[in-house]
Amino acid sequence: MNSVEQVEENVTAALDLYGAGIDEKLLNEVENILEPVKNQTWPSGIQQR
Q1: How far is CA 47 from CA 1, 13, 32, 42, 44, in A?
Q2: What is the E.C. number (predicted)?
Q3: Of 4, 11, 37, 39, which is least surrounded by CB within 10 A?
Q4: 6 vs 2: CA distance, rounded Å
C-alpha cells in the first residue's frame, strides 16, 4: 500500500470479509498453495550503501 486511499480500501475490504465468516476449506487450500513461499521476503527499492 502506498497511499491513504489504498489503506482505506483495504481496511474496508477486510471488514467486509470479516463479517462474511471464514471458509475453512478454501483457507486451507490457499495456505497449501502458498506454503513454498510462506514467510519469504525480497528486497525492493533503492539499495543503501
Answers
A1: 20, 33, 33, 12, 8
A2: 1.1.1.122
A3: 39
A4: 7
